[in-house]
Specification:
This protein has 377 residues and is an alpha/beta fold. The chain has helices at residues 13-26, 43-58, 70-76, 99-107, 166-173, 196-201, 211-215, 222-225, 244-257, 274-286, 304-319, 331-337, 360-369, and strands at residues 31-35, 62-66, 80-84, 87-92, 125-135, 141-151, 155-159, 181-186, 189-190, 204-207, 237-238, 241-242, 292-296, 323-327, 340-345, 348-354. The protein is built from 13 helices and 16 strands.
């Protein structure tokens, strides 16, 4: 159900993915190679795609399905080949293994698939959004009178089908998009309409949805990228001049602390793997002493080992008192990390509830229909 007249570059990432999948399917190819095809699809859309692929395979189509989502591998594959560091490390079948076994093959060690966490101890409200209205790039209403609160020491997860206002909500909160009406407050200060730098200096960290476009400067070194939001301030600059020795020392410390796999800190960021790019962004944002973290799709397209690391960092930051607004298309991620969950549909939060009160099936239904039986709070 997409507008055939829409310009593809203006569509949300999830909608772009659906267009690309449709284009591949209708060509009736003999060999179909799909690289992370479900990265931005809902559980229902994923199930529909897997059903279509199974039908194609039964008709004689050869399908190579590349993914890091273990549940999907076990659901659809006839044979499974695992790669690590560019080499095949093993082959198996769904009947011979499980998610834990596949994860261990992928990473080379035992992996915690669901992060353990203590109950949250939320304190004062850090982020308050009241009746926010935001338009998309076409001038259409994307966020419609949305309100939410995020408190220190908790993770509020926002789930929803791509294109229901998540991107516009994040951009409005972080100063990347103009607000039509409504108020965004952080620690009681009205930050509506402030620039991204002003908002960052007030204590907001941001892991963006598109790490290549908004998270990193690929041609710059890892060291430069680790101070992108602080390069002009002490101790990294003095009287308008950069202190490269301090930048280098700082970056080496973060590379070690966050296990960023890079030949050295002077390597261009574009040379890193997806997981190490994400670790670089996380290291930069977590190390600035922020009060609030806005994390949009923080594990999109990265390997299971890096996912484990990012998840643990988010929980650790929460336990240190950080307020976290988590936006993710991964329901397992939302359910695993969130203390409270909001479901967004057509720009509105139709449900906000404790994570223990929601399950995968119910969230998926609300995401696709907007119907619910629990009032938003």
């Amino acid at each position: 159900e997409e507008d055939p007249e829409a310009v593809v570059e203006d569509l949300p990432v999830g909608t772009q993915q659906r267009v690309e999948i449709l284009r591949s399917l209708y060509r009736q190819a003999d060999v179909l190679i799909l690289d992370e095809p479900t990265a931005v699809l809902t559980p229902q859309e994923t199930d529909q795609l897997l059903e279509v692929l199974r039908g194609l395979a039964d008709q004689g189509v050869a399908i190579v399905f590349i993914t890091h989502k273990l549940r999907e591998v076990l659901a659809i594959a006839d044979e499974v080949t695992v790669m690590r560091d560019g080499r095949v490390v093993g082959s198996t079948t769904p009947g011979e293994t499980d998610e834990a076994g596949l994860a261990e093959m992928m990473v080379g060690r035992s992996v915690v698939l669901r992060v353990s966490k203590a109950p949250a101890s939320p304190a004062a409200t850090v982020l308050r959004v009241n009746d926010l209205c935001v338009d998309d790039d076409r001038g259409l209403r994307a966020v419609d009178e949305l309100s939410l609160e995020v408190r220190a020491g908790e993770i509020l997860g926002v789930a929803g089908v791509e294109g229901n206002g998540q991107r516009e909500l994040v951009e409005a909160v972080t100063g990347l998009r103009s607000v039509v009406s409504g108020i965004v407050e952080m620690d009681g200060h009205n930050i509506t309409g402030l620039s991204p730098r002003q908002i960052s200096e007030l204590g907001m960290a941001h892991i963006p949805e598109n790490r290549e476009k908004h998270g990193l400067v690929g041609a710059h070194s890892v060291a430069d990228n680790l101070v992108l939001n602080q390069y002009y301030r002490a101790p990294f600059a003095r009287r308008g001049f950069r202190r490269m020795d301090t930048v280098t020392e700082h970056s080496r410390s973060l590379v070690a602390d966050y296990d960023i796999r890079t030949p050295d800190v002077f390597t261009p960021a574009r040379a890193l793997s997806g997981g190490n790019k994400q670790k670089t962004i996380a290291a930069r944002e977590f190390s600035q002493g922020a009060r609030l973290l806005v994390a949009a799709q923080p594990t999109r397209g990265i390997d299971v080992g890096s996912i484990e690391f990012v998840h643990q960092q988010l929980i650790d930051q929460r336990d240190r008192g950080l307020a976290v607004l988590l936006i993710s298309a991964e329901l397992d991620e939302i359910l695993s990390l969130s203390d409270r969950i909001g479901v967004i549909y057509r720009g509105r939060l139709v449900v906000v509830a404790d994570a223990s009160d929601l399950d995968r099936i119910r969230i998926g239904r609300i995401m696709t229909t907007g119907s619910h039986d629990t009032p938003a709070t």
